[in-house]
Amino acid sequence: MNRKQKVKTAIQIIAFIGIFLMLLIPVSYMLRTNGEVKDRFSGFYAEKNNTLDIVMIGSSPVFPYYVAPKLWGETGIAMYPLASNMQRPAAMKYLVEEAEKSQSPELYIFEMRMYTIADADLRSNMAYTRGVTDNMTYSMQRAKTVKALVPKDEVESMLPYYVDIMKYHTNWKMLALPSEWGNMFYHKKSPYKGYTFRDEVGPQPMPDCVDVEGVQPIPEEQEAYLRDLLTMLDDMEQDALFIVSPYGLSAEEQQMFRYMEEIVKSYGYPFLNMNEHYEDIGIAFEEDYADYGSHTNAVGAEKCTDFLEQYLLEHYSFTDKRGNAVYASWDQSYEDWKTEMETAGETIRERILNEDYAEIGEEE
Q1: Burial class (CB in 10 A: 0-12, 13-18, 19+), 97
Q2: pLDDT tens per residue across span 303-355
């Protein structure tokens, strides 16, 4: 084979590999199991570059508690959640780096509930890790995240984490779903900007341990992850707010939150434990939760969003971007949320009246 033929063959091989990857990556995105987390991440990537004021990162207390369309409609602040179920705190640093690829938010908000749980307990179910890695677009940053979150000695092979189509290759039914074709490039708008409606009711008594004295250390590895995150934010000169959403916490957890607060404030960042503001929020544990004190329903979400909104307006100076054509989809989300909220509110009231309570769930 002469030199000219070798060059031609090389070009053909490179072209074949390129075409193969061009087809493989969209198919991989589509075959990933559908659901709220996938749609939330895809919706994040669909937002125009450098248009988000706030990115909120954390576990499942994020997306049913804080109504991004409501915050937008009342303040002109664009906030979007990068949240997944039982999200490991170890992922927060890498999600900030992922967000920075397309956005330059004035503020990051971190929900801190998961820092009370040992990382080994979270790693025992790798779905909590895949909730992050399998919903990121393919990139060097995703590979870096996989390497950091997946312990080599705890999995049979790393390859299915780097190339997740190996896990989802049997999900061919996804290709028949019109909704999944919107995920071909992982840029599908989220109608409610990552927010999830909950219209169930699961009552429980209000916790009486908020005033417990003392502090209790959080798991050692979680403290290391927290300090690493704080150092990175400090190096970035990035504003951040650390919050704990109101829920049916224990005395031990409240002591851990006090411990976290000391660490966070020592780095110069604010810490807002909403469990110390039940009266200000107006939260009613008998009515405003979907699953017995773990996650709010739509009515509870309104109250938590109102409280956070006031805090943001009092402590930060965001530009009101309402009226800007770039944010037309946000205006539509607000209108759609108001319509859906009327229905959800009516459903919740009926369930309270009929004592039609939800089954207990397991997500955090």
Answers
A1: middle
A2: 999 999 999 999 999 999 999 999 999 999 999 999 999 999 999 999 999 99
Given a contact cutoff of 8 angstroms between Cβ atoms, the answer to whether 37 and 14 are in contact is no
d(C-alpha 51, C-alpha 57), whole Å: 17
Residues linked to residue 242 through DSSP beta bridges, in sequence order: 110, 271
Amino acid found at 195 = Y
CA distance 93 to 115: 14
Spatial strand order in the sheet of 239-244: 79-83, 54-58, 107-111, 239-244, 271-273
Identify any residues that bridge with 240 across adjacent strands, giving them in sequence order.
108
Q: Which alpha helices (DSSP H) does the chain contain, by range? A: 3-31, 36-46, 68-75, 92-100, 119-123, 127-133, 140-149, 159-162, 165-168, 178-181, 220-236, 251-266, 278-281, 298-315, 328-354
Let me know: does 240 contact 109? Beta carbons within 8 Å. yes
Give me the residue label for tokens 């434990």.
Answer: 273
Two tokens, residue 95: 């999600």
